[in-house]
Every structure is written in structure tokens, then in C-alpha cells.
Amino acid sequence: MPSTTNGVIWSAIERFSVQGVSFLLGIVIARLVTPGEYGLIAMLAIFMAIAQSFIDSGFGNALIQKTDRNEVDYSTVFYFNIVISAILYGVLYFCAPLIARFYNQPELTSVTRWIGLNLIFISFSVVQRTRLNIDLNFKLQAKVSLAAVIISGIAGITMAYHGWGVWALVFQSLSNNLLSTIFLWASAKWHPMLLFSIDSFKRLFSFGSKLLASGLLHTIYLNLYSLVIGKFYNAEDVGFYNRAYTISQYPSTNIVMIVTRAIYPVQCAHQDDDKWLEQHFLGYLRMTCFIVFPLMTLLAVIAKPLVLLVLTEKWLSAAELISILSLAYMWYPVMVINNQMLNVKGRSDLFFKLEIIKKIFAVIILFATLPFGVVWLCWGVVAYNLFDMLLTIVFTKKVIPTTYISQFHSLKLILLNVTFSSVISYVCLISIQHVWLQVITGIIIYISLYFLICRVLKLKELVFILDFMHHRLA
């Protein structure tokens, strides 16, 4: 479908231009600050993420899923976001001293109060971004977000270079969200009406509230590790874990986000056509995993030399964590693409029930591995992600006819390919000493093997990509 393909392309451009630049700027700043200073910001992640979940409240997805949405719906969501963000910032402001005492980090009081302003800035842009997503207008989002990231990133680097430490990270975050919101308002050409509809709120909240609850559970889980590590270990360990998490989930999360936010509005438009949904489901799954699986396993193979090369030796403790977490997040596309079908079919109740079961299991794993150190915590994440994937497929079967066998069968050649390519690449790197050569050789060997095997097996995903590139360049 041309509209879907075009949406994926611009979603990719927007996501990787913005996230790519942000990622690179983050690496530069990480070289200029200490793991402990980086860990201070990571300690606040759980509080900011929970608050941000309340600001959206699942209304973004509810607006996309609602096929008869109108200006009243948009305005209602907009004003709700503003009010809830102000309330949440007030709570965060007054709880800042408690957070600082919890971690035994006095500096967190002022850091929390400043970085909490992001909640206000973000609340003004939720509806604008949702409207652009519905229109598959990722081109405008790319321009807006990229400009904000570059300006704020340069400012953050400058402050870090002059010794501002954690405050460089605070200012970078604040300026990025503020500029992004200002640019969206100047470019998106949408303004709210002066009205708030209780009926509209109730209809949207009936769907979005379950997504809110599900999102809160997932958000708490993702950030619980930084909170627990900060409480039971120290800020430096939080820094190592958070940097490892940021790097390891980057390829998988961004690629999946590119695909799912482009196909979600299209799937919702066909939400009553079960035959269409079933036909396209495995295709989306295979194509996404065809790209994500090799990237994640390659990252696991070259993690140590990559950290030494990019982040310097002071971050070396993060290398092993990156390798482990990369194996966990390679399954992210399977989980998300299956999960999304529940929302497409309007079954946010199943989505919420699924999250409850998964997160109970997640917390059990977290506290079972906690006494054994951060490395074992990361292996616990691997175990959870495998459980998450298997259980999610059970629930997906309730809305479309799919099975473990059909999904495994569609992915088995890709899995065999990445396993073979990873083992051979790792063995080849053992005898190489220089980190530059390890990184370059590892990438060349892995990519060459992966695509050679794809050609031998005649995987249709490679054929599709090559044909698409040929037609685009012709």
C-alpha cells in the first residue's frame, strides 16, 4: 500500500534523524559527564515517565482508534492534558525533597523541580503530534523535532564542556521539549476550540483509561530498575545500567516505533476487516524482525569494543550489560506488533489484563535477581521479555487467527541466520586486539554473512527491500 509505505519512510526519516542526532549528542555529553552525574537524571526517570503517562492517558491512541473523531474530541483532550500536567508538576515539586531523601542525594531536590517543567511543555504538544500521526505527516514532525534536538544538544554539550555536569543534562532536556512544542505550534496550524465536552471525554476515556493503566504498569516496570539500582546500589551503577539500556534498546525500539505508528492508523481503518488484518500481520512482523534481529545481535557481539571506542574506558562496565540487554530487546518487535492488534480491534480490556499478568511476573523476576547484582538483573530482563512475547501471542489469538507455530515458522530462517552470523563474527573478533579493528571487522563480517545467507535462502524481505530501493533510485 503506497500510503503505508510512504508513512513508514517518513516515519523512519523522522525517527532516525531525530533519535540518531539525539543519540550521538547524548554520547558526546556522556563523554563529558561522569556516570554518577548521568545516574542522577536516570534516578528521576520513573517519576517523570509515570507523570507523562497520565498526561497522555491513552488519549492519543484513543483518538487514532476513533474513526469518527472531531474537533470537539481534540480540544477536550488538549485541555485535559494541560490541567493534569499542572497538577502533576505540583505534586512532583512538593515531593522533590522526599525523592532526594529516598536516594540520599540532596541535589535531586532542585534537579527534580527543574526537570519536572518538561511535563508542562510536553502537555501542549500531545494533540498536535497525534493529529500529525493520524495524517501520517511525519515529514513535518521530522523538521520540528530535528531542529529542537540540534539546538538543545549543542547547548547541552557546551554546558557539559564548561563543567555544568548534571545541569547540562537538565537544560538540554528542558530546551528540547520547549523548542519542540514552540515549533509544533508554529508549524502544525491547529489551535484548540474554547470548549470541553464531558461526553467526548467519557467516550475517549473508556478506551484510553485501560491503555493508561497498561501503560503505567509498563512504564513503572521499565523504570523500576533505575529506582531499585539507585536505592540498593549507587548512582554510578544507575548510570551504567541506564546508558546500557539506552544503547541496547535504541535500534529495536526506534525501528518498531517507525513501523507501528505508520501502520497503526492504517490497521485501525481496516479494524473490521479480519481477512485484511490477518493477511498483513505476518508480513509486518517478518519485515520488522528481518531488520531488528541482526542489528540487536550485532550490537551484542561488538558491545565491548564499541563502548571503549565511543564512550571511553570509564563506561566499560556498561559493555556486558549492553550485550545482555540486546538479547532481551531483540524480541521487542514480536511483542509490540502482537500487542498492537489488541488496540486495533478495540480490546483495550485484554491489553490491560495482559499487562497485569506480565508485570506481576516481571516484579517477581526483578526481586529474585536483585541480590545477585546488576548483571543478573539484566539476565532477568531477558527472561521477562521471552515470557512477555509468549504470553502476548496467547492474547493476540483471541482477536486474529494466529499461533505460535505460524509466527515461529515465519521467523525461523531469520533466527537461524542471525545465530550463525553472530557466532562466526564473535569467534573472528577474539584474536583482534585493537578496538577500531574489532568494531569495523565485526560489522563487516556480520553484515556480509547475514546478507549472503539471505541471498542463498532467497528471503523475500531482502528481495522486497532491494526492489524498493531500485525503483526509488531509478
Structure description:
- This protein is an all-alpha fold and 474 residues long.
- The chain has a domain at 1-232.
- Helices cover 85% and strands 0% of the residues.
- The protein is built from 20 helices and no strands.
- It has helices at 2-32, 35-43, 45-56, 59-65, 71-103, 108-115, 118-123, 126-134, 138-161, 166-187, 198-232, 235-269, 274-310, 317-329, 332-344, 348-369, 374-396, 404-429, 435-457, 460-473.
- Helix 2 (35-43) packs across helix 12 (235-269), helix 3 (45-56) runs antiparallel to helix 11 (198-232) and helix 13 (274-310) packs parallel to helix 18.
- The longest helix is centred in the middle third of the chain and has 37 residues, at 274-310.
- It is globular.
- The two termini are 20 Å apart.
- The model has no long low-confidence stretch (mean pLDDT 81).
SSE blueprint and pairings:
Blueprint: H1 2-32, H2 35-43, H3 45-56, H4 59-65, H5 71-103, H6 108-115, H7 118-123, H8 126-134, H9 138-161, H10 166-187, H11 198-232, H12 235-269, H13 274-310, H14 317-329, H15 332-344, H16 348-369, H17 374-396, H18 404-429, H19 435-457, H20 460-473
Helix pairs in contact: 1-9, 1-12, 2-12, 3-5, 3-11, 4-8, 4-11, 5-6, 5-11, 9-10, 11-12, 11-16, 12-13, 12-14, 12-15, 13-14, 13-15, 13-18, 13-19, 14-17, 15-17, 16-17, 18-19
Poorly predicted runs are none
Shape from CA axes? globular
- Radius of gyration over C-alpha positions, nearest whole angstrom: 22 Å
Q: Strand portion, in percent?
A: under 5%
Mean pLDDT: 81
How far apart are the termini?
20 Å
Helix content: over 70%
Write out key terms for the chains shown.
474 residues, globular, 20 helices, 0% strand, mainly alpha
